Amino acid sequence: MEKIKMTTPLVEMDGDEMTRILWQMIKDELILPFVELKSEYYDLGLPNRDATGDQVTMDAALANKKYGVSVKCATITPNAQRMTEYNLHEMWKSPNGTIRAVLDGTVFRAPILINCIKPVVKNWKKPITIARHAYGDVYKGTEFRIPGPGKAELVFTGEDGTEMRQTVYDFECPGVLQGQYNKDTSIASFARSCFNYALSTKQDLWFATKDTISKKYDHTFKDIFAEIYEAEYKEKFEAAGIEYFYTLIDDAVARVIRSEGGFI
Q1: Where are the domains of the chain?
Q2: Parts of the chain with a pLDDT under 50
Q3: What's the pLDDT score for residue 122?
Q4: pLDDT attached to residue 254
Q5: Cβ pair 218, 211 in contact under 8 A
Q6: N or C terminus: which one in the chain shows less Cβ crowding within 10 Å?
Q7: Looking at the whole model, is its pTM more than 0.85?
Q8: Residues with Cβ < 8 Å from 143, sequence gap 6 or more?
């Protein structure tokens, strides 16, 4: 049998522990006998990330951006225990976070349903795809361990010198503090990715945040999605016979559990 030839390289991102073994088995048994595999290989195993100062993760991300397709195996994001276990130089950040930032932060997790594995929720009959924005936010968060009493403030200084200042909390004891951010440009890119993915798969798109609590951060996501939908995608969705709607995350969970699936 003649093997299938590839024109564009596949970016291989090898991972940690059992994923290395599983990916090798997949290649040996399901790919290499049938395909002349053309790939660029990057070892994202924790020892190699440490040895390269995590440069290999950035190189892999840029290769993915260049070629447009990759396979990534599961990787370890180290904690204090892993620091000791692997004798690491640094507590390296999530490889997924680095890769998503280079690719502008959008992730779609689409399940493959097979008859021999049944969903736990009995009425789920179609795949449910999870779209997730992963730029900035907790992945790029700035954290402090607060040693004792004091005032924590959130401060923004504009290029023109204007200043915005808000007290986060007056600490009366030790605690923790975290600052997060996001950008309108990245949120807009995420929105268009979601709308385009829904159109390409002919699936409804549900969007949910907790804007009742996060009246600036989450509400900005809600507003940008609504603006882009009305201006660029409403007519396309109507022509395709699919729906976009927004709801609170609490309601979205209830709807998902009651549904048959088949949406993003």
Answers
A1: 1-103, 105-134+180-264, 142-179
A2: none
A3: 87
A4: 94
A5: yes
A6: N
A7: no
A8: 176, 177, 178, 179
Distance between CA atoms of 211 and 179, rounded to whole angstroms?
18
d(CA 211, CA 222): 8
Distances (CA, A) of 17 to 25, 28, 47, 59, 110: 14, 18, 11, 21, 24
Nearest to 99 by CA among 131, 129, 67, 72: 72
**What is the DSSP annotation of 102-151?**
HTTSEEEE-----TTS--SSTT--S-BPEEEE-SSGGGG-EEEEE-SSEE
Residues 223/133/80/172 CA torsion (nearest 10 deg) = 0
SS3 state at 199:
helix
pLDDT computed for residue 115 by the predictor:
84
Whole-number Cα distances in Å, 217 to 87, 158, 221:
38, 19, 7
Give the DSSP letter of residue 94: P
